[in-house]
Amino acid sequence: MNAPESPQKSIMLGDFVHSRTKNKLEFMYNSGIAVNNENGKIVDIENSSTSMDIAKQKLLQRLHWSEDEVEIYKCEPGQFFFPGFIDTHVHASQYPIVGLFDERSLISWLNGRVFPTEWRYEDAEVARQVYRACVKRTLSHGTTTAAYYTTIHVPATKALADICLELRQRAFIGRMCMDNNNFCPPYLCDKSSQELINKTTEVIEYINSKDPDHEIISPALAPRFALACTPSAMSELSGMYKAQHLLVPTHLAENRAEVKLVAETFPEAGSYTKVYDNYGLLTPRTVLGHSVHITEGEASLIKKRQSKVAHCPCSNSALASGMAQVRWMWDRGIDVGLGTDMSGGYSPSMLEAARQAVLVSRQLAAQLSDEAERQKVNLSVPQVLYLATRGGAKVVGLDEKIGGFERDKDWDAQLIGLNVVASSGKTEHENAVEQGDTGNVDLFPWDMSKWDDMIAKWVYNGDDRNAKKVWVKGQLVHSRL
Amino acid sequence: MNAPESPQKSIMLGDFVHSRTKNKLEFMYNSGIAVNNENGKIVDIENSSTSMDIAKQKLLQRLHWSEDEVEIYKCEPGQFFFPGFIDTHVHASQYPIVGLFDERSLISWLNGRVFPTEWRYEDAEVARQVYRACVKRTLSHGTTTAAYYTTIHVPATKALADICLELRQRAFIGRMCMDNNNFCPPYLCDKSSQELINKTTEVIEYINSKDPDHEIISPALAPRFALACTPSAMSELSGMYKAQHLLVPTHLAENRAEVKLVAETFPEAGSYTKVYDNYGLLTPRTVLGHSVHITEGEASLIKKRQSKVAHCPCSNSALASGMAQVRWMWDRGIDVGLGTDMSGGYSPSMLEAARQAVLVSRQLAAQLSDEAERQKVNLSVPQVLYLATRGGAKVVGLDEKIGGFERDKDWDAQLIGLNVVASSGKTEHENAVEQGDTGNVDLFPWDMSKWDDMIAKWVYNGDDRNAKKVWVKGQLVHSRL
Predict the structure, then answer these.
(1) Does the beta carbon of B423 lie under 8 angstroms from any beta carbon of chain A?
(2) Nearest to B441 by CA among B433, B451, B431
(3) Taking CB atoms and an 8 Å cutoff, what residues of chain B touch A379?
(4) What part of B 104-163 touches A (C-beta under 8 Å)?
(5) Which of B477, B445, B363, B443 shows the shortest CA–CA distance to B80?
(6) What pLDDT tens digit does each residue of chain B (481 aa) get?
């Protein structure tokens, strides 16, 4: 089903949930949000009314809208609105190999699985097939914004830009930058830093021509990681950053062997983070994927440069990289978002990433015997939802635009629906289980007004089936029964 | 949809996958398995034929069956047969609170969440509602055998037995035994060890009357854990074990605080495991849930008594209990199965438990710097699938009957279906994504003959949507489009 022609004005009615702070969700019951579908913005909010109908009437009156020109979306029992997810670190090109980890750690997995897969994108037709599947899939999981890496291939990268624009997923598109033939395979390596810059520029110009104001798609500068780029390429990318202030997604200290290799390659730098800093790539728009094995000194430097971190718990477990310390980074003033890191992360789902963020933090806690210390590393359900929305918005520099429900923000949102198990009428629930399209989250009668519980149930057992509708910038981009 | 009337004979055609050893899956391509639906048994196997049709003809000829009296189930592209999952540790009564962990560790979570929930089952109508939802749900995830704990309530426990028999899920039903009022809340505590034994006996007799040969449902003796039972109750349960050799599910060394409390309560025992041994409960049919924090000496004792372990990785992470060392237990000769441990485990899915078993083992590996040592703790995809099938069968004492595809075993199986992304015809795939009932596992054209990859993709991204059909003892018990 394609997104239907949207009307010019919508009113969303029901219960709204979003992050108020890192630690706290805000619940707005029986509320209404009015959306201008043309510019995609929230134009008014009626917070916590006595009924959905009263919220609607108040909005119509205040805005001088007549009901017949407005599309109404109304929550049913077990449904609520939640901000769209922001995936701060994801390799679109690796979508076909999600779950394939026969090689056991980062470097051997890159050589054995990832590079041969990325080579396929020399064929732009393969790119169109896979990228389309990837964007449809991530939209279906409620990912309204994604910071994508592609491959070195220009036509394939342009194809991803086209598809994001067509399917309307807000996206940063980073053509993978790699020109260091000491590390990169010959079939996946720009011949010189000049070629790297030229091809990167070609993609940037293409995206700028398609979406000059970066309403939906934005270009990014994506040096794969310190070993994949020559010093000269890193310096030149830094120059491009200074001129254009684009997002700079890259990888940092994912795995011990990688950290060791970087130290051997750049012995004078003193730390992995310092390598990026030395070449001018530790910027306020740099998004450092992983950052599992960073020192206190590196954390200070990241904070000083206002660089950001993308936490990728699914990947950190699947590739045996380790457990990143999110609370520790927060305590040092670093902004952190969440990334699926497909396909180091095995899942396209940000909800899965949020769930793993909780679980890994609890395994970190299990290593400590002091209860107070344990509480300092645990991530709560509200905290991981913050990472997945407002935290991510800050990381990609869009916190003025997305991540929560406020007037003048864009309407990037999901309608979440959970199963209601009626105390009588079990048959309906059983049919739903058989049909399989209502997901695994069952609300029993006594759950219905306990919002913290409903949200926790969703985070622990939810999946794409619970994302009933997804909007980006005021328009419906995904819908299921 | 209820299971249709099964015909007397079936032939399953296609590709079959099951565990050959702990480390190795066996793939049988273009094969056929003939099933006598009346006694539920596999009567013949035609392994790796040149085509499904030839496999069918060979079976019909050998068995002197005519095609028109046989129901044929045939794999489509992306489909294969796999043994049903065996959940060796699951609390049916906790199904309504999956994902609710506001209290942060075992003991406080038991008091704050679990006990108040278990109290609801005093009302047998609540039990019928929840247990029905639970059994439907776990069947839909391919769980063909479950070792269930209930609560102390007799009518509610009988209700679970009735429901498992009706919906035909092979189940061990353990009425929860707890009579120690130093630990158990007054509303959830048998008044004496005599009452505990009487009520347990009443449930056993009920199950024996409903299913005298334990074809589908079997009673179990379920001392909750060392702190919940009085020494006299444990001794008397041991006497019942000696007379009846029923399964004895219980908990062991889940969490450090619990281990400490047990040590303080039984200072003379010397170890948690020794407590059970002292009261005659460390038997060859004892299934020790968790066993996260056991010593070398305890492992030796478990091995000596031939007791079994239920590994519960979802729960061990969610409750911050720690990481159980499965490979270490295997190396010491202990049989290990897999448990969801709902709702310490947040998910009803054994596939999720298998996935978490991989992920947690990789986080264990990440703590080691020596590559050879890392390889000794990593669990592979074939290994976790062994835990979920043959390993579990051994743990519950049914390895002669279920866990793999061999002649004279019962047909407890799943038909797994993954999405095939056609190189052209993307629309079909997109429709499937929209409808949401085909799940998240996408096979691209180049995946199609790589069976290790297809299985890994299923383990990492599969869910109940991939369990298209589920059979227990030769009869179809769950089906979806």
Answers:
(1) yes
(2) B433
(3) none
(4) 104, 129-130, 132-133, 136-137, 140
(5) B443
(6) 344 555 699 999 999 999 999 999 999 999 999 999 999 999 999 998 899 999 999 999 999 999 999 999 999 999 999 999 999 999 999 999 999 987 667 888 999 999 999 999 999 999 999 999 999 999 999 999 999 999 999 999 999 999 999 999 999 999 999 999 999 999 999 999 999 999 999 999 999 999 999 999 999 999 999 999 999 999 999 999 999 999 999 999 999 999 999 999 999 999 999 999 999 999 999 999 999 999 999 999 999 999 999 999 999 999 999 999 999 999 999 999 999 999 999 999 999 999 999 999 999 999 998 888 988 999 999 999 999 999 999 999 999 999 999 999 999 999 999 998 866 545 555 656 555 568 999 998 888 889 999 999 999 999 999 999 999 999 999 998 7
Query: Which distant-in-sequence residues (6+ apart) come within 8 Å of B193 by Cβ?
Result: B179, B230, B232, B233, B236
Task: Using alpha carbons, list the distances in angstroms from residue A32 to A35, A52, B23.
Answer: 10, 7, 56
Q: Is A220 helix (H, G, I), strand (E, B) or coil?
A: strand
B103 has a chain A CB within 8 A of its CB: no
Distance CA B278, CA B259 (A): 16
Rounded distance between C-alpha atoms, residue A161 and residue A217, angstroms: 7
Q: For chain A, say whether B373 makes contact (Cβ under 8 Å).
A: no
pTM of the entire predicted model: 0.96
CB contact under 8 A, A101 and B456: yes
Q: What's the full length of chain B, in residues? A: 481
Question: Could you tell me the domains of chain B?
Answer: 9-83+407-479 (2.30.40.10), 85-396 (3.20.20.140)
User: Does ipTM exceed 0.85?
Assistant: yes
Residue A375 contacts B where some CB pair is shorter than 8 Å: yes
C-alpha distance from A423 to closest chain B C-alpha (Å): 7
- Tell me how crowded residue B259 is: count the other CB atoms within 10 A of its CB: 18
